[in-house]
Amino acid sequence: MGIIQLGFPTVLIYPSQGIIFENPGGVCRFKGRCCIGNSSAVSIGENGVLTFGKEFSASATLKLVCYHYTSFGDNVRVRWENLFSDTDFHTLSRLNGKSTKGYRSIRIGNNNWFGCKSTILKNTYTPNYCVIASNSLLNNNYSYSNPILIGGNPCAKIVEGLYRDY
Known about the structure:
Blueprint: E1 4-8, E2 19-22, E3 27-30, E4 34-37, E5 40-44, E6 49-52, E7 56-58, E8 63-66, E9 69-72, E10 77-78, E11 83-85, E12 106-108, E13 113-114, E14 119-121, E15 124-125, E16 130-132, E17 137-138, E18 148-152, E19 155-160
């Protein structure tokens, strides 16, 4: 088994539709083994910097949009149908004439585990040993303490002292 594995069939309920890996000039770093399951898409923009830590694993239907900066720590596990996007491709105008940024960084700590169907947006920071409940919306700094379980929409602390032991 290679260090980088793309499109492996791990979940029979998601038929393999291949994998899309788009990188027209951004930077993609692999610090160790990386496995991304079938029917997934990774899009790195021209100015994007994407880093996968050691032992990254995502099962079927990962959607990852990196046009600014996204990093995953070591031993991160991502389950079905998660979306990570460090940009929304939109800026909002303020009455004073200034605009918001359409992008911000995503920084995922070591030993994080993401349940299925969550959305992780720009400006998300998670601590080490963090479990993210299914169907959560992350768009903030969740560095409360570790280990910790967070979840919901909007995402908030559920319980401290709980982590996924691999």
